[in-house]
Design goal:
Blueprint lengths: L13 E4 L2 H11 L4 H4 L1 H6 L11 H9 L1 H9 L6 E10 L8 E14 L4 E11 L5 E12 L2
Antiparallel strand pairs: 1-3, 2-5, 3-4, 4-5
Length: 147
């Protein structure tokens, strides 16, 4: 059983540079075809300072940074018992190549179902850019299978 005293735990802050190559690879991986996401000249023509980041890139930033693995290690949960349960995003402003995102994650809740055979860890991540402006928020629910 995951120790409920971890609710409120602040995870290490991550600073993540948004690189053009990463944006292009992510856009290809998700099948994004709009030119603002795949062609820098088109993005600039549309009024953006550089390539526009696809909206779900935030999740990729956490994966790249190892935030989820670090959280599971802190909670003492083997990664082979973990399932991705739910993901939600709130957007405040656009992210572009050249930005540097700061991710501040915390454990918002830990609950259980089925007599503890399933535990749910809710993690909330606030994202800001290099100017300290709010970019958005991610809310993830990770399911831990115990048996």
């Amino acid at each position: 059983m995951i120790d409920r005293s971890h609710v409120g735990l602040q995870l290490p802050v991550v600073h993540w540079p948004v690189e053009k190559g990463r944006l292009l690879a992510f856009a290809r991986a998700i099948g994004e075809t709009r030119p603002e996401y795949t062609d820098e000249a088109a993005a600039i023509a549309a009024g953006h300072p550089s390539l526009l980041a696809p909206p779900t890139l935030y999740f990729g930033a956490e994966l790249d940074a190892g935030t989820i693995q670090a959280m599971m290690e802190t909670l003492g949960v083997p990664i082979d018992r973990v399932l991705h349960g739910e993901q939600g995003f709130t957007y405040e402003r656009a992210v572009h190549a050249g930005d540097v995102l700061t991710l501040r994650s915390s454990i918002a809740d830990i609950s259980e179902k089925k007599g503890g055979r399933m535990e749910f860890v809710t993690k909330v991540t606030q994202l800001t850019n290099q100017r300290g402006e709010a970019v958005g928020e991610m809310r993830s629910v990770i399911v831990v299978m115990n048996g």
